[in-house]
Input
Amino acid sequence: MTRQITKDTTLCMSLAARPSNFGTRFHNYLYEALGLDYLYKAFTTTDLPAAIGGVRALGIRGCAISMPFKEAVIPLVDEMDASAQAIDSVNTVVNTAGHLKAYNTDYIAISTLLREHRVSPELTFALRGSGGMAKAVACALKDAGFRKGVIVARNEAAGRALADLYGFAWQPGLDGIVADMLINVTPIGMAGGADAEVLSFGEPAIDKAGVVFDVVALPPETPLIRDAKARGKQVITGADVFAIQAVEQFVLYTGVRPDDELFRQAAAFARG
Output
């Protein structure tokens, strides 16, 4: 039987520069499996204030926030949860009767994956990027005990600020990068972009690394992940990040936590 959408159906959504179907498939799968009268839809926008105003005005329950809006959305919300305030970056907005509260579930996802993959904090790392997601990753690394790393960012002000905040080094480019773990937190390798087929790190750096982590979720296997797999490296993908942070969003929106098996089914369907 086809699920009926009525005037009482609760709407959740996402905002991204290049929307994917992952969140739409993930959330709607869980809504149907759990019998929840919710609907999820992905959007993009060139007018973020108007889009967030629409979330408030139309009673949209939840809004996932992706690149490049994670920091720009901050002045548009009413309250920052500690998870977002600590790293000054937002990936989730929850609307309760017109009151918009911002959260960050990216941090939870990164911390979970580092733990599940048993990545040793003794490893050195190179993190490419300095935006909102990079803040979540750097904070998770610091809290997991990582001490030896470099932030690679062309924007000196943002790169230095992020590096100084967590006690890491900074450099503007990839020259001379040698690290045990490489982490891409830029749009390089993302489907639909000008750099969709570009490696975010050079082949010599990939060859010398043991762990390669790409937060780009679309496609599930970016050029960086494909190259690292071909070289026999341990990989952590953006699809893994997306699934874990998305289930935490799901809980915030609905108050319901799916069990582990249902989560795995929804993640597999979303990647599908």
